[in-house]
């Protein structure tokens, strides 16, 4: 545990100041370039130059949505580790946007350092690699003075969160616009429901519940003879916690962020359980299949957060809160938002339906073109840290305090810089990967 200054996650100004004091190493890599260089306005100077870093499903989806905004924009560069993924993504995007995709061979950058060159070629960059690489790439984008859309989570451990927070401060100084892929914040049903709750529709909130209980997210990509172990793991990022942060961070973050949004604060501690009941054995990857975490806020409110990825069970993805005047249930996939009790209400679905994945890009690019303040990095990082704290509790079986969690120096894994590096986890002779053992795992 770091013995640095204690901070409250519910005092934003104090939190930012403390994080910056704790992140001098991260801040040192950010160059102090002229602020005027970075504001972009619609001055007739040609289209915004877009780069994509990470060409998987979410990366290609985010690029597609960026190209569908009203901004004058063109995809001009891409960075990827694997050439086949890169080419497939470019071809698919070009088929959908033939006049907005121009990524010649000289602007397709392969390898672990390619992101730096892709960022140098653009005005706006989409960061959609496995989230373990997000902090260093966000730092680089800010250092170069580029606007950013980055997928969530924004880090997998506390040192990474601190790097993102330091870069977020520098992005504000440079007038850069930053979007984070927590699209519930841009969904009209959530926006209206949260406003009603904050206006007192359910009274004083006593406790909240969140659920992301589902079957297996996706099938694993089968091994190919030409791949080494690291390549195999990189092709299966959502089966290896060192890349995705485990399911409580990767999936549960969306739900947790909604409650943080409602509360306008972040929890002060977490405790709970997690494990792998079914996801065990050869080719099962290396992450838990369930978590049940209790968070406590400074005002005494509790959040009970469940995550599960086990086939054949009851599935439920929702956020709920219970207060002195009633309750609320929010079902994202079904577009159902209901308040019961003293102030009953049900959201009437807008027509036509507004896609929140599209709206988050519409909002970001509108801010870029009109040069209005827009920076989601800090709240994205603090909600990411909330879920990391919960994972720490689940892995270790210990009660974890916010101050010790955010100041932790423990990395989830050693840095990966090439395909020849040793993977953070290795299978045993039976092809089974080791998992954290509660009671033995040192989270901090």
Can you give a write-up of this model?
- The chain has 444 residues and is an alpha/beta fold.
- The protein has two domains: 12-183 and 360-375, Rossmann fold; 185-352 and 385-406, 2-Layer Sandwich (Dihydrodipicolinate Reductase, domain 2).
- 34% of the residues lie in helices and 19% in strands.
- It has a nine-stranded mixed sheet. Strands 3-2-1-4-5-6 form a six-stranded parallel sheet, with helices on both faces.
- The model is unreliable at 1-9 and 11-43 (pLDDT under 50).
CATH architecture of the largest domain: 2-Layer Sandwich
CATH class categorisation of the largest domain: Alpha Beta
As a whole number of angstroms, the C-alpha radius of gyration is 21 Å
User: What structural class is derived from the secondary structure elements?
Assistant: alpha/beta
Average residue pLDDT: 91
The level of helicity is: 25-40%
Shape: globular
What strand order characterises the main sheet? 14-13-12-11-7-10-9-8-15
Count the domains.
Answer: 2
Query: First CA to last CA: what distance?
Result: 6 Å
Number of helices: 15
Number of strands: 15
Question: Tell me about the biggest sheet?
Answer: 9 strands, mixed
Beta-strand content: 15-25%
Which stretches are low in confidence, meaning pLDDT under 50 for 5 or more residues running?
Answer: 1-9, 11-43
Q: What can be said about this structure in brief?
A:
The protein is α/β, with parallel strands linked by helices and 444 residues long.
Write the layout of secondary structure elements.
Blueprint: H1 12-22, H2 24-28, E1 48-53, H3 57-67, E2 73-80, H4 83-96, E3 108-110, H5 114-120, E4 124-127, H6 134-143, E5 147-150, H7 158-173, E6 178-180, H8 188-198, E7 205-214, H9 229-234, H10 241-244, H11 247-250, H12 252-263, E8 269-275, E9 290-296, E10 302-309, E11 316-323, E12 326-331, E13 336-341, E14 345-346, H13 356-370, H14 377-396, E15 400-401, H15 402-406
Parallel strand pairs: 1-2, 1-4, 2-3, 4-5, 5-6, 7-10
Antiparallel strand pairs: 7-11, 8-9, 8-15, 9-10, 11-12, 12-13, 13-14
């Amino acid at each position: 545990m770091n013995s640095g200054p204690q901070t409250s996650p519910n005092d934003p100004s104090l939190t930012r100041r403390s994080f910056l004091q704790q992140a001098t190493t991260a801040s040192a890599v950010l160059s102090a370039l002229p602020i005027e260089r970075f504001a972009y306005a619609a001055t007739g100077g040609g289209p915004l130059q877009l780069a994509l870093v990470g060409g998987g499903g979410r990366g290609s989806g985010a690029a597609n949505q960026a190209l569908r905004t009203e901004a004058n924009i063109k995809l001009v560069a891409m960075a990827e580790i694997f050439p086949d993924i890169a080419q497939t993504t470019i071809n698919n995007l070009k088929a959908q946007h033939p006049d907005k995709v121009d990524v010649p061979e000289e602007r397709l950058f392969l390898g672990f350092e390619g992101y730096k060159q892709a960022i140098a070629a653009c005005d706006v960059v989409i960061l959609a690699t496995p989230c373990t690489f997000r902090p260093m790439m966000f730092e680089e984008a800010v250092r170069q003075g580029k606007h950013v859309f980055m997928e969530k989570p924004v880090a997998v451990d506390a040192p990474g969160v601190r790097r993102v927070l330091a870069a977020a401060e520098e992005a504000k100084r440079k007038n850069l616009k930053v979007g984070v892929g927590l699209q519930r914040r841009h969904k009209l049903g959530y926006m209206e429901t949260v406003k009603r709750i904050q206006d007192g529709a359910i009274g004083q909130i006593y406790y909240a519940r969140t659920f992301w209980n589902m079957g297996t997210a996706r099938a694993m990509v089968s091994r190919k003879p030409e791949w080494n172990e690291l390549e195999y793991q990189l092709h299966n990022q959502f089966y290896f916690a060192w890349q995705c942060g485990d399911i409580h961070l990767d999936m549960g973050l969306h739900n947790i962020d909604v409650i943080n949004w409602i509360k306008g604060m972040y929890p002060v501690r977490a405790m709970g359980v997690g494990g792998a009941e079914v996801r065990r054995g050869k080719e099962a990857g290396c992450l838990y299949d369930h978590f049940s975490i209790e968070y406590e806020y400074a005002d005494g409110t509790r959040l009970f957060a469940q995550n599960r990825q086990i086939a054949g069970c009851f599935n439920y993805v929702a956020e709920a809160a219970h207060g002195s005047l009633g309750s609320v249930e929010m079902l994202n996939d079904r577009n159902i938002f209901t308040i019961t009790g003293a102030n009953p209400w049900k959201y009437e679905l807008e027509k036509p339906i507004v896609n929140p994945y599209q709206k988050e890009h519409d909002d970001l690019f509108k801010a870029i073109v009109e040069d209005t303040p827009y920076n989601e990095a800090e709240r994205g990082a603090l909600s990411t840290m909330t879920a990391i704290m919960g994972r720490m509790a689940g892995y270790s079986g210990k009660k974890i305090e916010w101050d010790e969690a955010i100041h932790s120096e423990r990395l989830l894994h050693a840095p990966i810089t090439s395909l020849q590096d040793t993977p953070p986890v290795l299978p045993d002779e039976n092809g089974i990967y080791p998992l954290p053992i509660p009671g033995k795992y040192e989270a901090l």
